[in-house]
């Protein structure tokens, strides 16, 4: 049974929870971004009707949004030339690439796919109607903000049976002060096609502003998509990433998310398994330090029978950092023979680090195998002592434990060069100069 289920009714679609002071701040932000408004019709109406997120809205209960109420500037062409970002941030990676600087397409840094049956272009170069709003835009204020203000993005179409010969890197870079970057990626993968995607976000130390990215991915029957998603943003950037993924019969989608650094990051990942035999994998890790904040919200909506989903998110929090994990698995009445697994593990390295975790199962079928779990703890002192007693330094011993803790997620990255660069950047951030050497010698 496919295509018959009604969308999930999110909390925000019930009686709106309006907070007057926050609503006024949201309206002031809309006025400041008036020059960027591109959407029409329903997108603008959603913004009027939805509550601006605040602590009493369930989906934003543990997510601070006060940093968004500031002054932003529209992106300027000059910033592309001034940015000086790497076209490809992953050494040795042989991939197609499409590069966006401050939400604008950088043609010189891009190397678009030249492959039969594959069409990849920036949205600004395509004369087509804007994409219709999805369920997320109808229920979330920041998602509707993207729908109404997106100025650029990628449109990718992979024809039936086509296997893209190398990965496609989508590089987002933020440069300068108080920039407002809205991007919308529309991806359609036809039946039995295969594609590897890499979404890599960077910014320099002096950067500040907001990045709001929406990806709509439609995967037809029998198609396979692997997405490696990495966030390594310095400076004072607020990063919002929404993914809406719709899977048809017997399709496979794997999304691996790694947050290396970022002042404020929220990943909102939404799967809809709308055909029998779908398989979804969504894994992630986050290692914030100092005052960084990382929030991972996931929803897996099982709308058809005989589907599987596997979810594992691992967090290690340092300094005064904070994190959120909220994962929901939703099984509809006719989604019998569902097999869903969800696990969240967290290590608090210091007494000042905090994590809010909420794994959820909402099941309306009776012939399913569903499980979830959550752990919060500290480094295993016995394991540290064991390593130290064998001549391994404290820093190297902790690096080994970190690698063991997030190893399954790291190993799941589809592109080896991406995994290696992620490990290198993690070691650099946390001072594990000899991570690889330590692992090899242990």
Give the N-to-C terminal Cα separation: 51 Å
Low-confidence stretches: 7-15, 438-442
Beta fraction of the residues?
A: 35-45%
Q: What is the assembly state of the chains in this entry?
A: single chain
Could you give the count of β-strands? Answer: 19
Structural class: alpha/beta
How many DSSP H or I helices? 8
SSE order, one letter for each helix or strand: HHHEEEHEEEEEEEEEEEEEEEEHHHH
Which strand order does the major sheet show?
Answer: 2-1-5-7-9-11-13-15-17-19
Radius of gyration: 21 Å
Question: Tell me about the biggest sheet?
Answer: 10 strands, mixed
Percentage of residues in helical conformation: 10-25%
* Whole-number count of domains: 2
Write down the overall mean pLDDT: 88
- Overall, the morphology is globular
Descriptive overview:
There is one protein chain. The chain is α/β, with parallel strands linked by helices and 442 residues long. The chain folds into two domains: 11-378, no CATH class; 388-442. 19% of the residues lie in helices and 38% in strands. It is built from eight helices and 19 strands. It has helices at residues 20-32, 42-49, 78-83, 141-149, 381-388, 394-411, 416-430, 435-441, and strands at 96-101, 104-105, 118-122, 154-158, 168-174, 179-189, 194-203, 208-219, 224-233, 236-247, 252-261, 264-273, 279-286, 293-302, 308-317, 322-331, 339-348, 354-363, 369-377. Strands 2-1-5-7-9-11-13-15-17-19 form a ten-stranded mixed beta sheet. Strand 1 (96-101) and strand 2 (104-105) form a beta hairpin. Mean pLDDT is 88; it is low at 7-15 and 438-442.
């Amino acid at each position: 049974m496919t295509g018959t289920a009604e969308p999930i009714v999110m909390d925000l679609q019930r009686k709106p929870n309006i907070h007057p002071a926050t609503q006024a701040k949201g309206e002031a932000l809309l006025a400041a971004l008036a020059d960027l408004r591109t959407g029409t019709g329903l997108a603008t109406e959603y913004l009027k009707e939805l509550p601006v997120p605040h602590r009493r809205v369930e989906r934003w209960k543990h997510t601070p949004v006060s940093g968004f109420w500031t002054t932003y500037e529209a992106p300027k062409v000059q910033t592309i030339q001034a940015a000086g970002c790497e076209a490809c941030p992953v050494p040795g990676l042989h991939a197609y690439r499409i590069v966006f600087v401050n939400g604008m397409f950088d043609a010189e840094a891009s190397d678009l796919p030249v492959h039969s049956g594959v069409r990849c272009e920036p949205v600004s170069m395509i004369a087509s109607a804007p994409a219709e709003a999805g369920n997320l835009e109808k229920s979330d204020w920041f998602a509707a903000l993207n729908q109404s203000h997106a100025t650029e993005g990628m449109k990718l179409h992979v024809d039936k049976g086509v296997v893209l010969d190398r990965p496609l890197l989508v590089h987002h870079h933020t440069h300068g002060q108080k920039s407002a970057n809205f991007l919308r990626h529309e991806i359609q993968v036809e039946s039995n096609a295969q594609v590897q995607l890499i979404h890599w976000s960077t910014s320099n130390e002096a950067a500040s502003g907001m990045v709001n990215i929406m990806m709509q991915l439609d995967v037809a029957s029998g198609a396979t998509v692997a997405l490696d998603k990495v966030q390594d943003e310095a400076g004072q950037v607020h990063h919002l990433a929404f993914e809406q993924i719709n899977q048809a019969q017997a399709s496979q989608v794997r999304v691996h998310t790694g947050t290396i650094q970022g002042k404020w990051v929220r990943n909102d990942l939404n799967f809809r398994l709308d055909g029998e035999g779908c398989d979804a994998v969504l894994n992630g890790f986050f290692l914030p330090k100092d005052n960084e904040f990382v929030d991972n919200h996931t929803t897996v909506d099982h709308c058809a029978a005989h589907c599987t989903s596997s979810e594992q998110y691992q967090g290690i929090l340092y300094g005064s950092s904070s994190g959120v994990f909220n994962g929901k698995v939703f099984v509809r009445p006719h989604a019998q023979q569902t097999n869903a697994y969800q696990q969240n593990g967290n290590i608090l390295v210091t007494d000042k680090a905090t994590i809010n975790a909420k794994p959820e199962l909402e099941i309306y079928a009776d012939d399913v195998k569903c499980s979830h779990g959550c752990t919060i703890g500290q480094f295993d002192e016995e394991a540290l002592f064991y390593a130290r007693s064998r001549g391994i330094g404290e820093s190297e011993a902790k690096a080994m434990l970190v690698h063991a803790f997030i190893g399954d997620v790291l190993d799941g990255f589809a592109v080896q060069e991406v995994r290696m660069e992620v490990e290198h950047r993690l070691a650099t951030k946390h001072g594990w100069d000899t991570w690889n050497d330590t692992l090899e010698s242990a």
